[in-house]
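Methods — Computational structure assignment.
A single polypeptide chain was analysed. Its primary sequence is given first, followed by the predicted tertiary structure written as structure tokens.
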Amino acid sequence: MKFASLLCFALLLPQAWSTVSGQTVHGTVTDRTTGEPVGYANIWFNGTGRGTVADGHGIYSIDAGTVTPDHTLSFNCIGYDTCTVRLRDIPQDGTFDAFLAPVPQVIEEVTVVPVKTRLKRLGNNFRSPLMEAVHQDDLTGVEFGTIIKIKKRTWLEEVRINVLSCSYDDLVFRLNIYGRDETGRFVNILRQPIYASVPRTDEPTTVTINLADLHIVTDDDLIVAYQHISSSLTGQIRFPIGLTGARSCVRYNQGDAWEDTEWSFRFPISLIARVER
């Protein structure tokens, strides 16, 4: 599997960027081929822990903080190559429109072989409110994942995420599924984004996402992650958590490394799958 990093395309003004606290970079993220906006693209300054997500129309704004002109700003979304630009090459007014190149879709030949499987739940299915994680206000770009250990060939059927309550009116999240590439690094294996919403509710609910039509088969470990990408600025969502079960991890933007969750709590993501007998 090959992963490319392309330079963004933009009309640049000659004036160079200077490092001034509080400056922002802003603009739109667009499909280079069709000219259509790329909604909910990930944007981050490499190696800084600073990132965000574009809105549904591809419009973004990110605070540069105290990053230096030599830092790079990256843009990506499922189905597109990642593109990067150095901060020093962005116009002084902070306006930068990124154009993402679609990744060619290669249809792989599939050989259908009869195989016996059994339906199994993998991951965590916590429901009790005795322990909970409360996340509130603006969480844009944050990912919480469950590490799914795969021992035999496995066909993914659906993902379930348990929620205790949600006071956001318009929470949208992206489901990300990461598998290992040839270097052992976890990379997104989806060919198109999967978006889902969490309803405003005072009662426990389970968000279910069907994967059967995607025909995802794996024999290696996965990270199945919830990424908060859009909501009102204020509100909170409560998840039931546990201290035993499948390990969970967190990162605050796509440029960060995965870390263990605080206090090593386990996040309530489970995977329903058919596992080879």
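Note: The chain has two domains: 5-100, 117-276.
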